[in-house]
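Quick question: what would this complex look like in 3D?
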Amino acid sequence: MEEIRTGVYICHCGLNIAGVVNVEELTEYAESLPNVVVSREYRYMCSDPGQDLIKKDIKELGLNRVVVASCSPRMHEPTFRKTVEDGGLNPYLYEHANIREHCSWVHDDKELATKKSKDLVRAAVKRVFHHESLVTREIPLNPNVLVIGGGIAGMQAALDIADGHNKVYLVERDPSIGGHMAQLDRTFPTLDCSECILTPKMGDVGHHPFIELLTYSEVEEVSGSIGDFKVKVRKKARHIDESKCIGCNLCEEKCPWKTDSEFEAGMAKRKAVYIPFAQAIPNIAVVDADLCAYIQSDGKKCGACIKLCDAGAITPETLLKQTDEIVELEVGTIIVATGYDQFDPSVIPQYGYKKYDNVLTGLEFERITCAAGPTEGKIVTKDGRPVESIGIVHCVGSRDENYHEYCSRVCCMYGLKYAHLSKEMANADVYEFYIDMRCFGEGYEEFYKRLSEEGVNFVRGKVARITDEAQTDEEQGKLIVVSEDTLLGKMIRVPVDMVILCSALEARSDAENVGKVFNINRRADGFFLERHVKLDPVATPTDGVYIAGCCEAPRDIPDTVAQAEAAAGKALSLISKGTVTLEAAISTVDEAICHGCGRCEEICAFSAPNVVTKNGTLVSSVNEALCKGCGSCAVVCPTGAIAIKHFTQDEILAQVSALTEA
Amino acid sequence: MAGFEPQIIAFCCNWCTYAAADLAGTSRMHYPPNVRIVRVMCSGMVDPIYVLKAFEGGVDGILVAGCHLTDCHYIDGPVKCDETVNKLREVLHVLGLEDKRLRREMVAASEGVLFAQVINEMVEDLKKLGPSPFKAKTEALA
């Protein structure tokens, strides 16, 4: 074995360390430690002259291990690894002792701080003895990107990536892209029409030469890792010939079978064969197999659409024989933008949703005000009466410990938008019941001020219940909103013709499964968890998988678009580099000791180890691209066959035993 | 037990508690110099042997600290760490070491104050308990 020759470098960090720790005494002590051939102190080790000291000693004194005692390794370990590498050593033959953040900055007793520094330096010297050269590896990155979800977030991310001439597969569960934004009428605070700004983008996505759209499709399985994911997508049977359908809509007009339209939030009907909405992309029909009489009767009933379809897109074969198709894709990065569900307010019985016809959710009211919606943009009651007064209830399911503690961030603003539209389109009296007004974005506070001037009645208080039990003549035939008015300090009753519940945005009901497919964690509130809330907001703990939009947390359109562009940027920066650097400090198996029990395989959260047969015996084999180096496998390994490079038992025990020597 | 200064080793995960200790430093929050931190990548990486060897070496208390359950860089490290610590407690009980000598905490990167508080509490608790019973035995053997 080669002789271990260690150099120890003590940084003064100006007076940050030297003001508390006796650096001369520490340097002298370090030189007395085993295998230490040189120990030096310097005012700023991280400066160029400081680093040059190390490089020079490596060459002239033949050092093969280096310890620097300075600030936190989270600050300068990368710096000194580079120094060591520049000096001609493997960067992993380096160890860092933190005598600033963990010592001089938190202790003022000079003697004890110096003693502690000696302990930390001794532990580092004993540990670096066991360090080995490690090699980081680069593997090529597949430049194709998979985007899940065709709402505004997914579309924006797909466009940004595809505009750079990179292939994007955009997978959307519904028959058309567009997402929730396509259902919105106008957008706050500018009141521009949602469709007017969205549908051109939908067209761009639909026609983009670098975007392959897979609508009415869902991802079933993802395997592999960053740079090299393999994805199985279930393309559900549309029961029409997509290549022949021209979107003429004749089939839908004549189809006799009806159900509630998802796009119209149940406020109108759609047929068994349908195009979800006029601007749908792709503009082709889809057959709801559960509703279609022809399919259900195995071709014995109906068949009206077959007769009417001049294009020959609907035939007995497409209706009866077409089945789901599994498409296999290979991509290097994945962006998940699966959006949100609207909270169902019927779980709050006192608000009377689904009990009273004219208690609506926000999404339902969006369809009412939309010129292309079920009432052609007229604000009327279910039975067609004009609406003279409207109550808008904020924080339904949000900021409520019984449902969701979080603020849904968009409800105050869309509530204000409804107030404006109710004034403008129906000249109605509007009552906004709010807890706090949260108008935080660009132009939002100004919009609130404008609404105050438009004569909206703001009532600060939580609504207790909504009832139709009149107590006065004035209340007859009305819905009565019973609420506390905290500014007046009493309960009030407000009779109105219509109530809009500003329902919370909540995590998708299938977020748990989607999280499992893509290996994304969820917070307690159900939304996907980012890698770091402030500094890594679109990354996930799984390398190469990013999140954007409301699947991560409720947010408005501007923030969603910004986040989508951020996620696209992450994917683009990987594509532009072209390779993926694999972590060097990962698991390694000593096959001579391993007997293939599979405990490592069971405990690993990343499915990195797999028990395989080699030369007729079972052994664990680690997929280096999947291993993150967390070390849980080494803890459970009964034979000690598996170890984490750079955090081996030898290394950590050397450090521990050095610390107990004191 | 006047003048007794307990010796503590803290195993801290790189992403959360080590960073919290850094934050305590950058915020100049003073705590007693009785603790020596060993950086591990994940609290789930802490092998029972590290804790047992440290006690064998005579330390008076050990802290095993990492991310909160939902913050883990490696998805479920804290759960694995909890399992290790729970098993260790049984062993320590058999060995006659008081429960308070092994402390398990979840300290997020933003919780520098909590880190300093945990160290303060441990030093206080251990001062009450006195030196580890292993210390005398180790010294007698030496």
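Answer marked as accepted. The radius of gyration of chain A is 32 Å.
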